[in-house]
Each structure stands twice: as structure tokens, then as C-alpha cells.
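thought: fold this chain, then report.
action: predict
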Amino acid sequence: MSKRKYLKIGIDFHGVISQNPEYFKELAHELIHRGHEVHIITGGPCQKIEQTLKEMEFCYTQAFAILDHYEGMGMVQHCNDGSFHIDDELWDSAKAKYCQDYNINLHIDDSKIYLQYFKTPYCHYEADAQICTLDGEPCLDFRCPVTKVVDDIENLFIC
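observation:
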């Protein structure tokens, strides 16, 4: 794990922020206040997610949506019923690729299916327990005050 003075943290919207919006709003604010970046990394669509974040007054550095990414590449098949299709492997690997391309230090997500594609440390969020596991071991406890969780994140990645 690369150590540096500031961190780039990825947070999923659906299943993470959406499960505990006030807590993650405060977490993102504290991370940014300490000079770190917060990347919202989600399925999308980005415009809808960004509008929701704006209404929540949620601080973040950058947003990435899988749907928008592949739509921009012409790789989304739109159906007559309004649904869409993207190849499963492309969808499932997109967050991992984004994290690698943007040097994200830690990604927090609720879906285990993406884990197989990640080289970036992947913190699996369990909403019911409000904890995150890294490599199968509990590492972040979101029942604790936000300042302690940010301290714990910094201790994982900064000397």
C-alpha cells in the first residue's frame, strides 16, 4: 500500500451512502476538511446521483458512474422498455479500473461481486453491522465517531 500525505477515498452511492446518508455526508466532509479527496463511484446515472448529492449538501471531489462511462463509449444497449444492458464483466470491473486509473487508496462498497477485479484496497461495507472489512478482517467501524474513522483510515495509509 502506497503511503502519502493525502488520500483518495472512493465511496459507493447505492448500498453505502444511501444506507447511512448523514454519516457518510459527515465522513466525506471530514475527509475533505483534512485535505483528502472523496470520489463517489457508483452505477449511475451520474446526473441523478450528483443532483441527489447536491440536495443532501454532500461534499465530494469527483463522481464516476459506470452507466455514463460506457454510454460515452457507445457500449450501452438501450431497450424499448427503458432499461439498458452492459456486458456483466465490463460493469463489474469498471469501479476497479476507475480506482486503479485514479490512484484511489481505498474504495468502500457493499457489493462483493466487484472485489475480484480490485487491486485497490476494497473495504466491504456491511450496512446492518455498520462495519467495513478489508481482506476479510474488520477495519472500519462506522458506529464510531467520524473523526475516529478518518483517523483509522489515515493510520492505514499515511506514515
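thought: worth noting. The longest strand covers residues 37-42.
final: C-alpha cells above.
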